[in-house]
Amino acid sequence: MLLYLIKRLGLSAAVVCLVILVLFSLLYFIPGDPATIALGPRATPEAIARYAEKMHLDEPVWRQFVIYIGNVLQGDLGVDVFSNRSVTTIIMERIGFTLALVTTGMGWAMLLGIPLGCLAAVKPNSWLDRITGVLSVGTIAVPSFLVSIWALLIFAVHLRWLPAIGAGEPGEFGDQLSHLVLPAFAIGLSWVGYLARMVRASMLEVMGENYIRSARAFGLHPRKVVFGYALRVAILPTITLIGMGFGGLISATVFAEIIFSRPGIGKLIFDSVMARNFPIVQGAVLVATSLYIFVVLFSDILIAWLDPRVRESL
Amino acid sequence: MKHSGTTRRGFLASTAAIGAMGLMPALPTAGFAQAGSVLRLRLDGDNDILDPGYMSGGTEIEAQKQCLPFLAQYDRTEEGFDWAPTYFVTKLEQRDPTHIDFELAEGLVWSNGYGPVRASDVKFSYERMKGTDWSGYFDAMDHVEVTGERSGTIVLSEPFAPFIMITLCHGPGAVLCEQAVKDAGGEFTNEFPAVCGPYTYEAIPGQRVIFHANPDWAGPKPAFERIEANVISEVKAAELAFEAGELDCTEVGADTLARYTKNMPDNTEITVAGELQYMWMGMNTDHPKLQDIRVRKAIQRAVDVDSILQGAYSGTTSKSHGIICPGLIGNRDQSGYSYDPAEARALLEEAGVSGLELTLRTLNNQERMLAAQIIQANLGAIGITVKVLPVESGPYWEMGQESKGDTWKDLELWIMRFGTTPDPYEAAQWFVSDQVGKWNWERWTDPEFDRLYQEGIVETDPEKREAIYVRMQEIMEDTGAYLWINHEPEAFVHTTDIDVNAAPSGELNYRLFDKA
């Protein structure tokens, strides 16, 4: 287990290093002078010179890279081009909103998708299975930005049941929760389908195993067989999927955050790209990527912990 | 033996419980539709730097106007735009072309215990601006003389007619508290070191800015006690928020403006702040394909601008006849050419040009791409093949600049839009001889134009200024290098129960909003 952990940590660190390299190179692949792009076409020569000095753009590229790596290792992601605020602080102010959105979105998708998958597997080819199948494929096929727009138009603009923009008043839990409903619905909907299909497939495989047949032969209650024995094994591949999905949702929130004008990492990246605020783009993408890697690593370790067979095979 | 710690079964149960929290029914949301003396608006992004010397502009200027004193403000008249003294001054007079006398109102007090607003604060603020990123607005100013506790004189080094209009009314004209700025280290970013105005400032990054009623404010009470400016980067999202009843006022895009104009929803009005943007198609007079003025004039006459206004802008923008925008001294109501494909063909024949192929570069956005396609079709009709090249904003703004590479040599046609301030001087400055290779991408020079530009700066008689700027646009047009397109409006949609106050360039002035 320890060796596995070391291997996985090493691989994760290598991916993070690669991301840092790519993000650093980004500034030099974009056509145009980085200082002019960041400050706008009518920036004064003095402002451009000051920016170049602040960003170390007047230094050789290799030295800029060394400075960048050194700063990142110390948790210093640079400063915002315009406000001079610490990029780390700006990201920390917003990351909680993204994590709340992703957790809620994936949370409701799990609560609905996993039971739906179980029910479909217990009665394969029944009308319930068929309806679940159609709904699952339907929700998977609809992109989250489309769900966001329709949810906004129906529930906020037309019916006015739920708020359209923002994250709610700071410190008011109810208000914040009501602002979370529509974006969480939008990003989680397709995951209901994914999870239902995944659980169904795993469950069908497990339900054919000898130990399940034995449990049934002993006359155990069907609920006990499904949830007590079959689901415990069938859920394992789903955990990997949830881990990857959780990481993927961090980047998928960008649409929901823009459409609902909700603060978060995705919107921060989008706004910063539009403003050519490269230190924030670099910092926020690095944090988002690191979170993704961390969540996937965590789900791998969790699988190893939950499944003795995986643990023993290491 | 009792076993403690996390078990696999326990983990699964906890996960399910945490997930269930996500499905908790939403609580009532009555709180988001506040009314009364709260005004809910849109900010297109966080205010990064509130310091007038280093700001980006836009909504940062909006914040300054609520929290800092200004000596002058824009005044909309029937003829166009003018200036008027603010309630921060009891006197603001241009004594002669180089001296502007002012007297601050009594009872103005800075927050945070910094005492009364003094003439020395004005001196500090304006003289400080000469060493900042916005120093261009103070090039003409020599110094400020303090003649009393609340009075002084702004001394210009040479006559500069638009000084009050473009500098004192605009963001750079904000007055700062000298001592507070010094205590803050000489510069500040996203917090005012001291305010003097009807509102105080509180920012929640990424979410909103709240302007609270300033308890130290002794001046006229604003109509709204609290302003909530929500950070909404996308215009479309803001329009939907308005339709959902969560904003009282927001800027609208061209298509929504057209939709609302055609079918105005209940309890809704449109206010147009100004049209201080001018768009044209430029031609490089140095390029071998376009060196013959007859070819350029043929292109001017071959494009049906009215089709562009309808097809790309849904009829929501004014047709342009030059660089001076509607409402400003020197605005023209007619061009010296018109859409005439037959004349265009004749000019091409006269020049002996056939099978001409040109590249039209434009920023890659919806309206300009549509405009480019209409131009492409119009020029195709007279035998000119146009390749439309969409360009990302980084390289786009460098295309004509000699200091940024060699693209200027290949530049043929391009669609350009500049924004301006409410004085014709600003728009004209980019086309003088020393701007060739910088912002005069058309690359022509004209001694008369340069002379008129200098005369326009010092001339204070409006009629003479009008004649100067009309003539300057005629000179530009006669080069054949300009196809005037339009002036896009800064339009705001709002509920009928509020009166919107916006600067000609579109910045909202919340303290002058009123209840209808």
From TrEMBL, chain A:
It comes from the Bacteria. Its main location: membrane. It is found in: Cell membrane. One of its GO terms (cellular component) is plasma membrane. PROSITE patterns: ABC_TM1. It is a multi-pass membrane protein. This is Peptide/nickel transport system permease protein. It comes from Salinihabitans flavidus.
Automatic annotation (TrEMBL), chain B:
GO terms for biological process: peptide transport. InterPro entries: Peptide/Ni-bd, SBP_5, SBP_5_dom, TAT_signal. Its main location: periplasm. Residues 1-35 form the signal peptide. GO terms for molecular function: peptide transmembrane transporter activity. PROSITE patterns: TAT (PS51318). The keyword Signal applies. GO terms for cellular component: ATP-binding cassette (ABC) transporter complex; outer membrane-bounded periplasmic space. Residues 95-435 form the Solute-binding protein family domain. It is found in: Periplasm. It comes from the Bacteria. SUPFAM superfamilies: Periplasmic binding protein-like II. Keywords: Signal. Pfam families: SBP_bac_5. PANTHER family: D,D-DIPEPTIDE-BINDING PERIPLASMIC PROTEIN DDPA-RELATED, PERIPLASMIC BINDING COMPONENT OF ABC TRANSPORTER. Belongs to the bacterial solute-binding protein 5 family. This is Peptide/nickel transport system substrate-binding protein. It comes from Salinihabitans flavidus.
